[in-house]
Design goal:
The chain is α/β, with parallel strands linked by helices. 33% of the residues lie in helices and 23% in strands. The strands form 6 sheets. The chain has an 8-stranded mixed beta sheet, with helices on both faces. A 5-stranded parallel beta sheet has the order 2-1-3-4-5, with helices on both faces. The two termini are 31 Å apart. It binds cytidine-5'-triphosphate. Cytidine-5'-triphosphate (CTP) binds next to helix 11 and strand 16.
């Protein structure tokens, strides 16, 4: 898919620049032609020799060669490229991009580029979370820059959190998705997707949860994102990596998920409610670990708020898609939920079907809207996600 594609790889001053070497190699192996532009500081983190060797071309840092005055034309470079990929993108470079500062070749190339631009941010967790960085990212998103979300984990500072540059393999996947021939039919739309299991604490060490793996919701987030939508994935507990280009908000309890959804719904074009949300939560969370005794233990549980139903009441023109997992009277129960929660359509899983439900990579679902029910055959969760994305597209909102 990347054969013959012209990619400018921009490298900024971040420790994650060491991953740019692998990224460059992967892009070249996939058939892309790569030219590397570095900021002056990036040279402190990875050598021009390494990058020139891997990209098979001299790297560009300065506006001109001081030896002979030869001009490094950012305009020509911008015209040549099919994609400008800045990985790692430091907080400093993102701030400059967001405000149009042009004090190095990497930035003048950004201002000249007519091609799509993607950035893979990399920084310390506090820098990433800072309101200024978030504001700059929001601005860049509005300007049409594709953001390849950083991961969560060990950071060079010794701290652990969100800010690690996405892994080179993930970045290549994101690049392929950008080049995919699929038309960007949902460009300009913003959807929320809930996924995974919520966690209701009982005491500092125990909780109530369920078997949801999050696979279906993550596949939907990916499918919508690949069609050009901006996707916010509000995720309970799962072991999955965030799909490239998707913004993930991690939550624990049903209450956290409720707040994260309600806060963002109004600004969105709709939501897909795929999470397995606890219907009950302990009335009280014990401050200390509950010690066992010889007696039975009863836990008082109270109802959680229904997120989907709340969004259903505030739906307006937005799209709202629900899920139902049933073990009996499947269609009738799903129909009832469709009406009660004001969904445009509901995706019914029957636990009685072979190949459906939790944890697996396949699903058997029926898509039910107020006027029809379409039962799909056994298919992969990513194919189910495509069918759901098709139906969202057909609602044309
Ligand atoms: N849902 C939600 N918030 C909740 C409970 C459910 O957003 N607190 C959403 C789910 O994500 C799903 C849909 O509502 O899209 C259906 O959830 P389900 O638990 O199957 O339905 P309930 O109405 O809780 O019915 P029951 O438990 O009786 O099956």
């Amino acid at each position: 898919m990347l054969k013959g594609k012209h990619i400018i790889l921009g490298i900024t001053g971040s420790i994650a620049a060491y991953k740019s070497a692998v990224l460059c190699r992967l892009l070249v192996s996939a058939g892309a032609e790569v030219r590397v532009v570095m900021t002056p500081l990036a040279k402190q983190f990875i050598t021009p020799l390494t990058m020139a060797t891997l990209s098979q071309h001299p790297i560009l840092v300065d506006f001109f060669n001081p030896e002979n005055g030869e001009w490094n034309s950012h305009v020509k470079l911008g015209e040549w490229a099919d994609l400008y990929l800045i990985a790692p993108a430091s907080a400093n470079t993102m701030a400059k991009m967001a405000t149009g500062v042009a004090d190095n070749l990497l930035l003048t190339t950004y201002l000249s580029a007519r091609c799509p631009v993607a950035i893979a941010p990399a920084m310390d967790l506090d820098m990433y979370a800072h309101i200024a960085t978030q504001r700059n990212m929001e601005q860049l998103r509005e300007d049409g820059v594709h953001i390849i979300e950083p991961g969560t984990g060990f950071l060079a500072s010794g701290l652990s959190g969100k800010g690690r540059m996405a892994e080179p393999e993930q970045i290549v996947e994101a690049v392929k998705a950008l080049f995919s021939v699929k038309k960007k039919s949902l460009e300009g739309k913003h959807y929320l997707v809930t996924a995974g299991a919520t966690i209701e604490p009982i005491d500092p060490v125990r909780f109530i949860s369920n078997h949801s793996s999050g696979k279906m919701g993550y596949a939907i987030a990916e499918a919508l994102s690949q069609r050009g939508a901006r996707v916010t994935l509000i995720s309970g507990r799962t072991a999955l990596a965030c799909p490239a280009g998707v913004e993930r908000v991690d939550v624990l309890s049903a209450r956290d998920m409720y707040e994260a959804c309600v806060e963002r719904f109004e600004e969105s074009d709709g939501a897909v409610m795929c999470a397995a949300v606890a219907d009950y939560t302990p009335v009280e969370v014990a401050e200390q670990k509950i010690k066992k005794s010889d007696d039975n233990l009863s836990l008082a549980l109270r109802r959680t708020d229904d997120i989907a139903a709340t969004l259903g009441q505030r739906k307006g023109h937005r799209v709202l898609v629900g899920f139902a997992m049933e073990t009996e009277a499947e269609e009738a129960n799903a129909q009832h939920k469709l009406e009660r929660k004001n969904f445009d359509f509901i995706v019914l899983n029957s636990l009685r079907e072979q190949g459906a439900g939790f944890r697996g990579d396949t699903n058997v679902v029926t898509l039910i809207d107020p006027t029809s029910a379409e039962k799909l055959p056994l298919m992969s969760k990513s194919d189910v996600a495509e069918r759901i994305a098709d139906k969202i597209e057909s609602l044309n909102r």
